[in-house]
Each structure stands twice: as C-alpha cells, then as structure tokens.
Amino acid sequence: MRKPVVGVIGNAHRVENRFQVQMVGERNLRAVAEVSGGLPVMFAGSPDITDIGALLDTVDGIILTGARANVHPTRFNVDPCEKHEPYDIHRDEVALALSVACVARGVPLFGICRGLQEMNVAFGGSLHPEIREIPGRMNHRMPRLENGEIHPDPTVVFADRHEVDLTPGGAFAKILGCEKIRVNSLHGQGILDPGKRVLIEGIAEDGTIEAIRIAEAPTFALGVQWHAEYDPQHNPINRKLFEAFGAALVARQKAAA
C-alpha cells in the first residue's frame, strides 16, 4: 500500500516585500512524514489555485496548520480592526469550505492553532481576537524578550505553559489515555462561541477552549489550539495525536480500496 497523501495548507507570504509566495512550516511536514507515516504535500491557501473537490479526490487527509494571520472577523459577523491584522482572506475562503467538505466526505481533518479556529468558524462559531483581554484569562501568546522581540530559543517558545482538562471518555481522552495534559501556547485569537457541530473536548485552566471535535464526523475531525506539530518524536501528547491521525489515513485508504 502506498503512503497516504496529506494535504497541508499554505499561507500567503511576501519575500523581500516583493515576491508573493505560499509557505508552510517544516515542522508540520515532518510531523506528517515521520509520525503519521504520510507523504505531505502543500496546497495553496488560495481559491484561485486550489480546487477543493480535486484536492479531496487526491489526498487521504488534510492538515490545517497554525499561521501568523487571524481569521477575518467578517467571517463571524464582527467588524475588523487594524490592531488584529494581518489577515489572510484567501486562506479563510479555502480553509472554511475545506473543513466542511472534509467532514462531509469523510476525509481525516486535523486543525492546529489557526486550523482549530477555522474549523470552529466553518461550522458557525465565533472567535475572540485577543483572548488575554477577557477577564480572568492568561496571556496565550508566545514568550517574548523585554524588548518585545520573540524569544530566540524555540525550546522556550514551544515549552509547555498550561494544563488542559479533557472530556472524560471523549476522543482526546481515549487517544491520549488521560484526562489532563500540559501544552504549549502561541496564539492571541481563540474560540469565543463554539459552532453548532463543534464539541468542546479540552479546556485550559483559565477557561480557554483548547481541543474540539466535530460531532458525527465519520472519521478523525479534531482541532487543537496548541502547536501539536512541535517535536512529536519526543512529546508523547503530540506524538499520539499524529499517530491517531495516521491511523485514520490508513483506514480511509483501506475503505477506498
């Protein structure tokens, strides 16, 4: 049997402030290849380039990665604000439609950070642009130096920062074999109201939604607010998630054979 093919969404980026490119973080690609056992293939987060139907005819699963840009507020009926930029409206269009299509067609779907947020919005949910501004919430953004620059040490940036309580008997608890985990935190935006089919399966100690499942999805359709692509070779939580995603890819291949 061939390796499962996994589509990994790209993000709009400008090189040297001149060249428009699509890019994806290598950690996502390596997690798919080294832990899920799949062949990662980046596809463009642009509706002019990416035909969702053709894409889903080609791949065995989809990864919606984290990204710098926020989901555009108009997607959940909120006015945009300059301080919450940048946005990537083309990725929004692809990712939201793709989330619904994956679930409808039984294609395994794994949303990470922004990917979780996209899944929530796709099913009618809303987001808060800056979780730390809600009373009682912690700062979920990545660690920075005193001068405001991002900390240069990735082990500090991606270090576990808070606990998450998982729903007893839920999909995450079954995959991970426990009901409490510790995770990293590198986001400003987060879920405010869950979508109609979005089941909350993980909540941080400050009340932030950290893990979701799409109700009645025929296969793996999970989202996490933390960056699960970080070091899944050695992080047991992240490894188990990518292994479970890999098992769903194989199951889909066998069912289609």
What does this structure look like?
This protein is α/β, with parallel strands linked by helices and about 260 residues long. The chain has helices at about 25-35, 50-60, 90-105, 115-120, 155, 170-175, 235-255; strands at about 5-10, 10-15, 20-25, 40-45, 60-65, 110, 125-130, 160-165, 180-185, 190-195, 200-205, 210-215, 220-225. The protein has a single domain, classed as Class I glutamine amidotransferase (GATase) domain (Rossmann fold). Helix content is about 30%, strand content about 25%. The strands form 3 sheets. It has a 9-stranded mixed sheet, with helices on both faces. The protein has a two-stranded antiparallel ribbon with strand order 2-3. A two-stranded antiparallel ribbon has the order 7-10. A hairpin with a 6-residue loop joins strand 12 and strand 13 (about 220-225). The longest helix has 21 residues, at about 235-255. The termini are close together. Involved in the breakdown of putrescine via hydrolysis of the gamma-glutamyl linkage of gamma-glutamyl-gamma-aminobutyrate. Its EC number is 3.5.1.94.
